[in-house]
Design goal:
Structural class: alpha+beta
Oligomer: single chain
Order of helices and strands: HHHHHHHHHHHHHHEEHHHEEEEEEHH
Strand content: 5-15%
Number of strands: 8
Helix content: 40-55%
Number of domains: 3
Largest sheet: 6 strands, antiparallel, barrel
Shape: globular
Number of helices: 19
Length: about 400
């Protein structure tokens, strides 16, 4: 493909592109090895429309190089482009406002910090979730602070995602707040799943300040019993291992926690460089199940039987069960919008595992989901199920 903008010679001089043509032009240019020199002048002819289009592309982008190109182009639009993004946050629909959050996190973080919260508190949890995710993958140096300032105000389903994104940002700034949360002294202190998320975030950040607290969580006893649930203790020991491996090895000798379950570690955040590839990072390793695991998927329009083929401690992928000879219309994953909340129940041989999950993506043959509510007994059973898979040892 030629490195010049298709049709740019006539378009630059004869008038602005139609929106469809502008969209096609931008999408083609983003796939080139380098941005054409005459692309920005074309976008500058209609900065408001271009800002909207760049924000839309930013929300959907998957590659780090594409993300950085979109930031560069938006910055090149100047004040008119930035003012358009700010107007969308103030007065646009929820969809338009969410769409501009990522670019504002990069180009006007102080403005976003001041003005996002009043709108976000009025949104349903799916919109809040989308805004948090967009800030998380924006690459903004301020994303940990931005997200921490939202944490007290988001829906309970969104809080675990906020904590995950803060941990992935890797900023020492957040360590004291995460320590209070891990100790049960902040926000939803009674929610053990939220505390586990904070413990894992401390491990991802790698803050030495957290080691004494994490050690107490592993070692604390009440008479002859461990004071804290097994899953919380496992996560605390795993986080210590990321910060002070030698100390974790000493603790493991007396903690009486199964080595195979300890091996299911949260993944470390990838460096925020173009070489690392994708903007959205996995939090946990996926395990290919030796046999598909039956589950019930219950949402607004009913309950469907599915089979989970891939699972992690955070979510997985499941496909509908095909019933030979069934005359009713089969369940189509594509009819389930992204952001849909569903109750999921895994049908294991022993006790079933129940979780509340959010649909992250859909394809014709299945659904990707992330668990946002999961009690610690259920997470322990899920960990044991994954630890027993042959694929884990491979």
């Amino acid at each position: 493909m030629d490195a010049s903008v298709p049709g740019s010679n006539s378009s630059v001089h004869d008038g602005p592109f139609a929106s469809a043509e502008l969209r096609t032009l931008l999408q083609r240019s983003l796939n080139l090895r380098s941005l054409p020199a005459d692309l920005l002048p074309v976008l500058q002819q209609q900065p408001e429309a271009s800002a909207d289009l760049l924000a839309e592309c930013f929300e959907r982008c998957e590659r780090l190089d594409e993300r950085e190109r979109l930031v560069e182009l938006t910055s090149g639009l100047g004040l008119l482009g930035l003012e358009q993004l700010k107007r969308r946050l103030f007065k646009g629909s929820p969809e338009e406002a969410v769409r501009c959050v990522g670019l504002l996190a990069r180009l006007a973080p102080e403005f976003l910090d001041q003005h996002l919260l009043p709108r976000l508190t009025r949104w349903e949890h799916a919109r809040q979730d989308a805004a948090v995710k967009t800030i998380g993958f924006s690459g903004s140096r301020h994303r940990a602070r931005l997200l921490q300032n939202l944490a007290e105000h988001v829906h309970p389903y969104v809080l675990p995602v906020v904590i995950d994104e803060i941990g992935s940002a890797g900023e020492a700034y957040s360590a004291p707040w995460l320590m209070r949360l891990a100790a049960g002294e902040a926000l939803q202190a009674a929610d053990l799943y939220v505390r586990v998320k904070a413990i894992e975030a401390l491990g991802r950040i790698g803050s030495p300040l957290a080691v004494p607290l994490l050690t107490r969580l592993v070692e604390a006893k009440q008479v002859w019993r461990w004071e804290h649930p097994r899953e919380l203790r496992i996560c605390a020991l795993q986080s210590i291992a990321k910060i002070e491996p030698a100390h974790a090895k000493q603790l493991a000798a007396s903690a009486r926690l199964p080595e195979r379950e300890l091996a299911l570690m949260p993944m470390d955040p990838q460096p925020n460089t173009l070489a690392s590839g994708r903007v959205r990072q996995r939090r946990y390793s996926r395990v290919q199940l030796s046999e598909p695991l039956p589950l019930s998927f219950s949402w607004l329009h009913g309950t469907s039987r599915m089979l989970a083929e891939v699972l992690s401690l955070a979510g997985g992928f499941a496909r509908p069960v095909e019933t030979p000879g069934r005359t009713a219309t089969p369940f189509s994953p594509l009819k389930v919008p992204r952001g849909t909340t569903a109750e999921i129940e895994f049908h294991t041989l022993l006790r079933r595992i129940h979780a509340t999950a959010v649909v992250r993506n859909t394809v014709p043959h299945g659904i990707g989901f992330e668990m946002v509510v999961l009690d610690l007994d259920a997470r322990t059973r899920l960990r044991q199920l994954l630890a027993a898979q042959p694929a884990l040892a491979a």
